[in-house]
Amino acid sequence: MKIALAQVNPIIANFSHNNERIRQCVDQAIAQSCDLVIFSELVISGYPPQDLVEKKDFVDANVASLNRMLDTIRGIGVICGFVDHNPADEGKRVCNSAVLFEDGQIRHQVQKRLLPTYDVFDESRYFEPGRESRSFLYKGMRIGLTICEDLWNDKDIFKRRIYHFDPVDAMVKDGAELIVNISASPFHTGKIGFRKNMHATIAKKYGVPLVYVNQVGGNDSLLFDGLSAVFDRQGRMVARARDFEEDLIVYDTAADSAVIREVAASETEAVFKALVMGTRDYVTKCGFSKAVIGLSGGIDSALTAAIAAHALGSDNVITVFMPSAYTSGDNFEDTRRLARNLGVGLETIPIDDIFREFLKDLVPASDNREPGIAEQNIQARIRGTILMAISNARGCLLLSTGNKSELAVGYCTLYGDMSGGLAVISDVPKTMVYDLAHFINRDQIVIPARIISKAPSAELKPDQRDDDDLPPYALLDPILKGYIEDDLSISELVEMGFDRQLVSEIVAKVNRNEYKRYQAAPGLKVTSKAFGYGRRYPIAQGYSP
Description:
Blueprint lengths: L1 E6 L7 H17 L4 E3 L17 H17 L4 E9 L8 E9 L2 E7 L24 E3 L2 E7 L19 H7 L4 E6 L7 H16 L3 E5 L1 E4 L2 E4 L3 E3 L5 E4 L6 E6 L14 H19 L5 E5 L3 H14 L4 E5 L7 H14 L2 E4 L3 H9 L12 H22 L2 E4 L3 H6 L12 E2 L6 H11 L8 H5 L19 H13 L4 H6 L4 H13 L1 H5 L27
Helix pairs in contact: 1-2, 5-6, 5-11, 6-11, 8-9, 13-15
């Protein structure tokens, strides 16, 4: 059997777009004499549709889109995911479903059995779980059709399983000779390697080939890497699609191997590709074509600008430099050089006069003290106001430039540098920011070397440096990862060798600044635990670790 793995980038609830992309891939598969073409989980609606599934007209439109394909696609079998009405009189109103249809007839239908409810997943809120895991016969081969999480419960892989049932095991016992898994599996660091090993282990364990088709593209904070693949009965990967872009590859079950695309060679490269894809999709899927970014001469805004230029094209990126009396001469030069290297437009708007007007009623003329927190925040908010004005006037999306380390401990200003429609690197720790900058400069200098080498500074008062208020990022980031991503306690972090007082101070800052993160722009998720709807903590609370 010749099988096409169709890796597409759907837009949530844009049924005409998604239907057109599905039809284009079907035509490609037919042109290559394929018997079957497989699409990803909920490809008709896009994943995750979230509370849209509670709207009956949304579900009806999604089913109608499937029916239009049933009426018009001929000459090939199609597996695709969609939201279906639950026919039962009790339980949730909809199911996360998949069908195999051919020549106007549904040959087989399944409902997702294992519904993840952790991190960014909330499927038990919406869907009724399936109750059957059986194989079916198609073109002489018994197939077990699973949906994403249905594959993630093997007792030999997960030490503590969170489900009481393994659909794959049941389907193989029911005679499945091929396991198909349609998925919408989001990217984060460390996941690609784990997922590949999991797929290989399952294929080898049961001695059946595994076909995995994943969604690609960015939908709000979630970034889907694609990397659809086939693993043979020995667990060897024999076919693989591209990462972070649409693709279609063909696998013949009678052949030993198929095309294996080149993909990111390192995790840093994968994160960069994910951020570029996520920025492009967020901006364009929200109806924008251009973005505006405030450049400071620092590495965070430089990285954000480089990502935006790759994502949208240099002509579609506006950068704005807003110097003050505290801006170093180096930053004037470095900012001009960065903009020139990226090929983006650069506008310079000094803020000193505006700042002095603010201070007239706030600080007595005889007060020569250096700027305190209020005065520092005013500067950040002046810049945020200017950037939002440009965004409104020119119809472009403002990209904020703060990193995860700063956001975690509150080293950022509400309505100032936090202003924006998308926080591009808000899930990128500062140490990873440097890794990404070096990756961008791997072949030629794009981000000026001095931007990377100089001590980070907000430049809101004389001779200010980040390490005046924060420990070195090489020390801060591992503590933040342990507390935020790994859920380690203070004692566990101390056992790892970190100073107790330092850990306690950092943890207190993380907890104290929850209110800021609730008001932050959406960010692109690239680590295992990002700030956003995958991490839910109360603001008003009394927990003191």
